[in-house]
Amino acid sequence: QDLAALKGKELSSEDVKNLVSGALLFLRVLIGNHDSWPKNEGFDPLEKFYDRIIDLVSGTIRDILDGHDYTVKHLRTLVREHIQICEQFAVKSGLQVRMLHPSMARAKTVTLRLQECMNPVAARSCQVVLVANFHVGVALEEWKPGMGQRVGMQVGTVLTETDFEKSKLKDVDTHMGLLRVWSCRGRIFKS
User: Do 132 and 113 form a contact (C-beta atoms < 8 A)?
Assistant: First the structure.
């Protein structure tokens, strides 16, 4: 809802909190190999990420609410609840989504790694499989009896032209992945 449309209406602090919570998307994070390597050295690179993104989102929400004379107590906590570290989750329609970031080298066959990631026991029950680490962008659809349509997406990288890639003679796909799936009762009917 637009806060301007609510101007002049009496809203409890709980009402405002529920509006903010309902407007926030969930950010689901999978810890990748670049995030896990430094942990052996005693620090968590994602710690700064969490603090910065919570500050950014909380500050933006606070500015909007202040402009309409509303406040939310414990706003940082509310925002933090919408950031989740996980490998698998369900969306409202019941689809199961699995995220993978395997520590494997790329292959000459573009779909090979995505196909391998869709087959492990943990991913077999998921209609959507998201994969990172191979720096190659590719999408794959398959039909499974009993489950119906499945979709796999392997995203490239948002970094490009780094010294690491150059030293390994890597040609990487640089992009963000966007997957749109229409589903009902835990089954995909269009992707």
Answer: no
CA 43 to chain centre: 23
Please check the confidence at residue 166 and state whether its pLDDT lies above 70. yes
Instruction: State how far the Cα of 3 lies from the Cα of 186, in Å rounded to an integer.
Output: 33
Closest CA to 99 of 39, 34, 29, 163: 29
Backbone angles phi, psi at 178, to 5 degrees: -130, 120
Distances in whole angstroms, Cα of residue 120 to Cα of each of 84, 100, 113, 141, 154: 23, 11, 12, 16, 16
pLDDT for residue 70 is more than 70: yes
Rounded Cα gap, residues 29 and 42, in angstroms? 20
To the nearest whole number, what is the mean pLDDT of the chain? 86
Beta strand 128-131 pairing with 96-100: parallel
191: tokens are: 């992707």
103 vs 6, which has greater pLDDT?
103
What's the gap between Cα 116 and its chain centre? Answer: 21
Determine the pLDDT at residue 33: 72
CA 22/CA 99 separation, integer angstroms: 24
Fill in the amino acid letter for 132.
A
Residue with tokens 């995909």: 188
Q: Cα(20)–Cα(122) distance, rounded to whole angstroms?
A: 34
